[in-house]
Task: structure prediction
Amino acid sequence: MTDTDIVIIGGGIAGLTVAKGIVEQTDFSVTLIDSKLEANMRRPVDFDARVIALAKRSVEEIRRWGVTLPESVAIKHIEVSDKGAAGLCELSADKFGLTEFGEVVALQRLGEALFSSLQTSRLKRITTSVENISVSQNNHQLHLANKSSLNCKLVIIADGGRSSVSQSLGFSYQQTAYQQTAIICNVKMSERHENKAFERFTANGPLAFLPFTSSPQENTKNEYSVVWTIAKDQADRLLNLSDGHFIQQLQKAFGYRKGRILTVGKKDAFPLALRHADRLIQHRSVVVGNAAQTLHPIAGQGFNLGVRDAVSLVDALKPVADPGAFDALNIYQQTRKADRSNTIGLTDSLVTLFSTSLAPLRIARNIGLLGMNVSHSVQSQFVKQTTGFN
Ligand SMILES: Cc1cc2nc3c(=O)[nH]c(=O)nc-3n(C[C@H](O)[C@H](O)[C@H](O)COP(=O)(O)OP(=O)(O)OC[C@H]3O[C@@H](n4cnc5c(N)ncnc54)[C@H](O)[C@@H]3O)c2cc1C
Result:
């Protein structure tokens, strides 16, 4: 006996996206389990919002499923540069026949938009966590922290980068610690963003500035969300600086491309690692989002891969009667293979190439950037992969 066709474990951004796709595109009943779901939706969005860049394809897929994208800022130009060297590459969306490369959005606002579009009787929500799972031939029984249990035909694991549920079902992972920390914070600049994002390579690690707006009503046009990747041992030193001293260091690393940094908000730190599952499927279970792969944020691809996981999984489930059928899950695994491996490979090689101060690699990356600046075909390939259309 089954209580629900599909259980999604984890109501983070990946779990909500896959839930939306299944409810929109199939007739299966879905139960979404997360202990923090309602509390997360009640958090205020302010200047300290966590922000992500959605690739153009992710924007299109999310809209195709009937979600109204919350207020966001389009990225129309990208400048890639190397601090203290000649390598500089400028990309403009219109040169590739695009209106934009993607949109920058507060993670929380995107979560709320997905959540509010999920008010349907075919989706049940349970505010608790999954403790363990008993596996049998035709269904799974989930044992929950609230002492209840439920049966389903398919378990979709979207419990994030430290996924423990997946390991209990036999998923195994490859993991590489980068010995780097990402410091994230939002800043106000003295000049307007003009829809331009920056990726700057410094001796200490890559630095990204994404244009965003914390206050859509006021339509602020001088805010940037910063992801500053730095060697682990230097991160604590930076985090302990006063705001004034932190701004000085950040300005030194970024330069004056958008004038002076006027204000900095709350700083957060994320230790960085690459972690990816060897297989995306086990008996009546699949992994999606960060539970499938957790990437370095250097190219802003983590959740974008999660969206494509969700799209492939929903497409594989559409024609079948049993959502846990091996053939459907296997199609999901096969269709994700090339995109996953290309995106993981691209991200990992960017980390290696752009986090080094070794002379030969530095020269190579400057030649690469200069070459990329003049070669439209190299640019096109890069743009295709990072906008999600490869
Ligand atoms: C600094 C930084 C910058 C980034 N920038 C970008 C970007 O620009 N573009 C981009 O695409 N990506 C970016 N990413 C990646 C992106 O943030 C992640 O891919 C995404 O947030 C992961 O979402 P998720 O739902 O898979 O996992 P999570 O957000 O970790 O959600 C997991 C959920 O599962 C729940 N959970 C855990 N265990 C259980 C359990 N046992 N039972 C029930 N529920 C459970 C948790 O409560 C949580 O809500 C960035 C990441 C970092 C660190």
About this structure: The longest helix spans residues 326-354. The radius of gyration is 21 Å. The chain has two domains: 4-45+108-175+275-350, 73-107+176-272+356-387. The first strand starts at residue 4 and ends at 9.
